[in-house]
Write a structure and sequence with these properties.
- With 556 residues, the protein is α+β, with helices and mostly antiparallel strands.
- The chain is built from 16 helices and 18 strands.
- The protein has an eight-stranded mixed beta sheet with strand order 6-5-9-12-11-10-15-18. Strands 1-2 form a two-stranded antiparallel sheet. Strands 3-4 form a two-stranded antiparallel ribbon.
- Helix 1 runs antiparallel to helix 2.
- The longest helix is centred in the C-terminal third of the chain and has 17 residues.
- It is globular.
- It starts with 16 loop residues before the first helix and ends with a helix.
Length: 556
């Protein structure tokens, strides 16, 4: 039987009934040749049989980009060809695409990022056009082992791993273009970064007030002055704005949702995301993963709808300051905020490749009491991920779309960072966040010291009757735990404070009232609907604290 292929040559496809009927007949023919995941090679002018898609995407691509003009014998869609070696059959992964792993990468990205409309059909996203152009371009005439995109990705990887500065990268590109004039390569690091951003590896630059009062974000994104202290967002010289707009500070925010969706883009990581459910210990006396802990089980009990879907993501947050210049004589503190996914097995969740940088808080001073200002974009996204979730295509379940939700279970920090995140001050007489208002402390030679820890020992322990500690025997029972209700009752007495370091606004020192205890303000994390019910909100990184103490005592 002869197949009518004349419709593939029609250029005005939008209003052509002949093209539409031919396309539907082709899709019916291809339906019986999809693989076990529902994917089949796409013969559009962009994918040229090198990328596999579902039939809905196939229909969109052919309608938008047209059918391959030189593909006359449809061997991948059921047409029998007597001469298997016919020159009219374009072979997949030939030429520039031979063994190019970028095809599989883009296939995972596009299939997961595709939007699902009311009819269940996926719409093609124009942001990938430049990526496919670079993927379908030879790096150099006659070189089939590298596409332009593949070479650029590997070059950017070398830059990051070897800590090349941007200027040296630009100089290398100039040298390559000079030595190989026909090489298809970008001209600068800026252009390379723009192309990498389309692969989901970018970030948002959010302007910050010079006094850390507020962000120029959302409703304030177009403002020229801070909404709190009225300072200009631009650096000034002699009361005037410089000729070129120069920002005071820039917060780098790496959106969380695309990175979580990427975990489900491949079948390997999509299966690992379920490990916390399949690999948890069956013995209540053994803890090998946070899923075996009481805090995790308590969260599942209070939020059964979230716990029912094992693909919902549970996150931990860590933050700390460091000197990016590796020079302790320069006082500069930059704070990265990192998220880890606890759905993964314990031997992977702390690996660098599975840690997600969420925020890069600029210096030169540590955020301190103004940490909530910088956490605002992340908290807003966490609220959205909890309340409405995002449509995600699960490669571990036949690429079906599900509503993925995420929750922040706790933070992990040293004592100083814990104070900035929890808003409970780590100084003065009530510094202990566990003992809270019952913290036993006293003043010794101009320093605040803390004692009374023996009350947590067993009642028959010999140290309780030892007089070498403070000359007294310890008879008190262990201090009780403060419940979430107790904490919220304390926070009701905390006054609203103005953030920032401006001397006339947030920089004004305020004496806390007796009923405020050691609370500086109510943490921004309490805006998360589930945060008040979490049993263990903040963890102390004991190993980190021990290192800091040893460094302070022993010196460099």
């Amino acid at each position: 039987m002869t197949i009518d292929k004349s419709w593939t040559q029609i250029r005005k496809r939008s209003n052509s009934a002949v093209f539409w009927q031919g396309l539907q007949s082709f899709l019916q023919m291809a339906k019986s040749h999809v693989n076990d995941r529902g994917f089949i090679r796409c013969p559009c002018n962009r994918c040229i049989n090198n990328v596999k898609h579902q039939l809905e995407v196939l229909e969109t691509h052919i309608h938008r980009f047209g059918f391959m003009s030189d593909y006359n014998e449809w061997i991948y869609y059921g047409e029998n060809v007597n001469a298997a070696g016919s020159s009219n059959v374009p072979q997949p992964n030939s030429g520039v695409h031979d063994r190019d792993e970028m095809f599989e990468l883009l296939e995972d990205i596009i299939s997961n990022d595709a939007e699902v409309d009311q009819l269940g059909a996926q719409s093609s996203n124009v942001q990938y056009d430049d990526l496919f152009t670079a993927l379908n371009s030879e790096l150099y005439p006659g070189v089939s082992s590298f596409s332009s995109l593949n070479f650029l990705v590997k070059l950017m990887h070398l830059k990051v791993m070897n800590k090349w500065i941007n200027k040296s990268f630009d100089e290398l590109l100039k040298l390559l273009k000079l030595a190989f004039p026909k090489m298809d390569l970008v001209d600068s690091h800026y252009e390379a970064k723009k192309l990498m951003t389309k692969m989901g590896l970018g970030y948002q630059s959010i302007h910050v007030c010079k006094n850390d009062c507020a962000l120029f974000w959302n409703e304030n994104s177009m403002s020229e002055t801070c909404s709190v202290c009225s300072e200009s967002r631009w650096k000034m010289q002699a009361g005037r704005q410089t000729g070129k707009n120069v920002l005071h500070k820039v917060l780098c925010y790496f959106p969380l949702a695309p990175r979580l969706k990427r975990l489900f883009a491949t079948s390997k990581t999509a299966k690992l995301i379920r490990w916390h459910w399949a690999g948890k210990s069956t013995d209540d006396n053994i803890m090998r993963h946070p899923v075996d802990g009481r805090a995790w089980k308590d969260f599942d009990r209070k939020h059964p709808l979230f716990a029912d879907d094992v693909r919902n993501v549970r996150l931990g947050l860590a933050a700390d300051g460091f000197n990016p210049f590796n020079n302790m004589s320069i006082s500069y503190s930059m704070w990265p905020v990192v998220l880890t996914t606890y759905n993964l097995p314990p031997w992977l969740c702390m690996k660098p490749e599975y840690l997600m940088l969420s925020l890069l808080i600029p210096g030169p001073q540590s955020p301190g009491k103004d940490m909530d200002v910088f956490l605002r974009p992340l908290v807003e996204e966490l609220k959205e991920l909890w309340e409405s979730g995002i449509d995600t295509r699960d490669a571990g379940n036949d690429r079906k779309v599900f509503k993925m939700r995420a929750a922040l279970l706790w933070t992990m920090n040293d004592f100083q960072a814990r104070s900035s995140l929890s808003r409970w001050s780590g100084q003065s007489y009530k510094a202990c966040p566990t003992c809270n208002e019952d913290t036993p402390s006293m003043r010794v030679i101009g320093k605040t010291t803390y004692f009374g820890h023996r009350c947590f020992l067993p009642s028959t322990h010999r140290w309780r009757s030892n007089l070498d500690f403070d000359g007294r025997t310890e008879r008190k029972c262990p201090l009780g735990r403060f419940s979430s209700v107790d904490i919220m009752d304390q926070l009701r007495h905390v006054k609203t404070t103005i953030l920032g370091k401006h001397p006339n606004y947030g920089g004004v020192k305020r004496k806390r009232g007796d009923d405020e205890l050691n609370w500086r303000k109510k943490s921004i994390f309490y805006e998360l609907p589930y945060w008040v019910e979490i049993e263990l909100k903040h963890n102390l990184d004991v190993m980190h604290i021990e290192k800091n103490i040893c460094d302070s005592l022993l010196g460099p």
